[in-house]
TrEMBL record:
Taxonomic placement: Bacteria, Bacillati, Actinomycetota, Actinomycetes, Streptosporangiales
GO molecular function: ATP binding; phosphorelay sensor kinase activity; protein dimerization activity
Taxonomic superkingdom: Bacteria
Stated name of the protein: histidine kinase
KW Lyase (keyword) present: no
Length: 379
């Protein structure tokens, strides 16, 4: 088990315990001196007590070894008894009880083993033995409490880190879903325009060269834009959605609706735009982008599934009232033969729901297909 680098607090705690060990050892030496022991055992006792004090600096790297050596030294050196308590606390704070148990068993036997190696020492009275056992139990309980608290803090830190990683994964998935919705709306719109232009060329093989060149230019430009947008999204997905590497592409707003309608008009669609919003640019970015995507999907569906006829787009609302977007087109079989996955309207409904709005779509009694959405527009 490796020990992480010590902090300033750890160094301060080690210094405090080292001073405490010196104080306890000094008291033990003085107590032995009052009993007038023999010179040689007394000197060895004091030296072993001093050596046990130096082991405090190794307690974090070798808690078990420190405890075993200190308990062994305390069999001969009574002045090392105080350091033994520090060693038992350290072992209990850093190791599991099943590792500390044998060491504690050895410490319990110390009062009875000392007279065997030192004939000048008698077995202490029973109350001193019980007092020593009480001190051992107290430091063990303290050490186990410190270990349990440390484990609890580590578990809490791991849980927080796990929750943070889960949140990041959810954010990344949400970003991917958003990108998928954006690409569906954008590519479906552009590819339907390309299909419409190509269909016009197919139906008019005798068109003037100028008209053919103009339609081919529009098709080339639309294909180029679609490839660029697809390349950008694939690059974002490969880069792990790291958008810090470059600026994001400007997102469409409510003010860009007229340009969107003009693109469809240039493709041959008859689109009537009725925008009753006084200042489209003043609409919140999220609301404007949502309205743009709704109109974009409505025009795409009109090209895919609607009969030839005029498509009407109505946008109205204001701050505090909400924004209403409605797209109507004659219902019928697919006029341009453009395939579709049928998930565009589902994605729009989800987009509107996430924004706090609602979306309705379906055929009307007058033979039209109506797409209507309401988005909240706060004051």
């Amino acid at each position: 088990m490796t020990t992480p680098g010590r902090t300033r607090r750890d160094r301060a705690a080690d210094a405090a315990l080292f001073l405490l060990a010196i104080a306890l050892t000094t008291l033990g030496v003085m107590d032995n001196l009052d009993q007038r022991p023999a010179p040689v055992p007394f000197t060895v006792d004091a030296v072993l007590g001093a050596m046990s004090c130096l082991g405090v600096w190794l307690r974090r790297r070798q808690p078990v070894g420190f405890a075993v050596v200190t308990v062994a030294l305390s069999v001969y050196s009574m002045s090392a008894a105080g350091v033994t308590l520090i060693a038992l606390f350290t072992a209990a704070a850093h190791r599991r009880p099943k590792v500390v148990g044998p060491i504690v068993a050895g410490a319990v036997l110390v009062p009875f083993l000392t007279p065997l190696v030192r004939p000048d020492v008698q077995v202490p009275p029973w109350w001193q033995v019980l007092l020593g056992y009480a001190c051992v139990a107290a430091v063990l309980a303290w050490g186990m409490f410190v270990r349990a608290r440390r484990e609890s803090l580590r578990e809490r830190a791991r849980r927080v880190e796990s929750e943070r990683e889960l949140h990041l994964a959810q954010v990344r998935q949400s970003e991917r879903d958003q990108i998928a919705r954006e690409m569906h709306d954008v590519l479906a719109h552009r590819l339907s325009l390309l299909s419409l232009h190509a269909g016009a060329l197919e139906l008019r093989p005798d068109a003037a060269p100028e008209e053919v060149a103009l339609a081919a230019g529009v098709i080339r430009d639309g294909a180029h834009r679609a490839l660029e947008e697809l390349r950008e999204v694939i690059g974002m997905l490969r880069a792990g959605l790291d958008r810090s590497e470059g600026p994001e592409q400007p997102q469409p707003t409510l003010a860009d609706l007229s340009d969107l309608v003009d693109q469809s008009r240039r493709a041959g669609m008859r689109v009537l735009l009725d925008c009753q919003v006084g200042e489209p640019a003043a609409a919140p970015a999220a609301i404007g982008r949502g309205a743009y995507r709704i109109v974009q999907e409505g025009l795409t569906n009109a090209r895919k599934h609607g009969r030839d006829g005029e498509v009407s787009v109505a946008v109205g609302g204001a701050a505090g009232e909400g924004l209403t977007v409605e797209v109507r087109n004659p219902a019928g079989a697919a006029g341009a033969g453009i395939p579709g996955g049928g998930s565009g309207l589902i994605g729009l409904a989800e987009r509107a729901g996430l924004a706090g709005g609602r979306l309705e779509y379906g055929p009307t009694a007058t033979g039209e297909f109506r797409l209507r959405a309401w988005l909240p527009w706060p004051r």
